[in-house]
Design brief:
Layout lengths: L2 E5 L4 H12 L3 E6 L2 H8 L5 E5 L5 H15 L4 E4 L12 H29 L2 E6 L10 H24 L3 E8 L18 H13 L4 E4 L3 H12 L3
Helix pairs in contact: 1-6, 4-5
């Protein structure tokens, strides 16, 4: 039985991925701040286990993650699904800071932890859920933080290619997905979380570098990259 940690598994894409991976026979640790939701999720799945973890509590984060690996009996896959963002036209700094702290500072710590734990055992896979929003301007701290994640995970991939080829790194890049993170109105090509979870699972199994969720957003991604050359 393969073992995975899903950070941010209480709702949205992370929750649906936990459910789908569990159905495929994986042993899953789901992490999040809302313990009641995690417990409810794991209640009917004997191979899923809930852990109350706040990724912004950096001081104890590594120790908690190492304990969870011990409980699982090892680790094959580390999925980072946790994130936050706000509609913030007032430029409320507290909201911008919360986004940066979670999506940049804590994300960086999680990726680094995954890199080191897998390097010690000689194999493993890190999966980071970013966003198409990271390829465009307009989302203030959220878009900027997702741009950071895209560039950071690519840098880690380049580094691993030289010093740790046993590490697989997959970036999942959602477009519009019907979750609590989808703010505002006028969205198009909206996908359901359970649908993108299946696409994500297949991409992870193939150890793809980048997978858009869903695939039609790849066209938008290519267009945004092209336009950025002329901006």
């Amino acid at each position: 039985m393969k073992r995975a940690i899903i950070v941010g598994g209480s709702s949205g894409i992370g929750k649906e991925m936990a459910l789908y991976f569990s159905q495929q026979g994986w042993k899953i640790a789901v992490l999040g701040r809302r313990k009641s939701l995690l417990d409810e999720l794991c209640l009917e799945h004997e191979n899923m286990f809930s852990y109350e973890v706040d990724i912004n509590e950096a001081e104890n984060l590594s120790n908690k993650l190492e304990k969870i690996v011990g409980d699982l009996g090892g680790l094959d896959l580390f999925i980072i699904s946790a994130g936050t963002g706000f509609l913030n036209n007032e430029l409320d700094f507290s909201k911008e800071y919360q986004t940066v702290k979670t999506n940049v500072e804590s994300f960086t710590k999680l990726v680094g932890w995954g890199y080191h734990i897998f390097k010690q055992q000689g194999h493993g896979q890190i999966v980071a859920i970013t966003s198409v929003q990271g390829l465009m301007a307009g989302g203030l701290a959220y878009s900027a933080s997702k741009s950071y994640q895209i560039n950071y995970i690519n840098s880690i991939r380049m580094m691993a290619k030289k010093e740790f080829p046993g590490l697989a790194i997959t970036e999942l890049r959602p477009g519009s997905v019907d979750t609590d993170m989808m703010k505002g109105e006028g969205h198009f090509w909206v996908s359901k979380p359970n649908e993108v979870a299946i696409i994500a699972y297949r991409a992870i199994q193939k150890k793809k570098k980048i997978q858009y969720l869903s695939g039609r957003w790849k066209m938008i991604g290519a267009l945004l990259k092209f336009l950025s050359l002329w901006s």
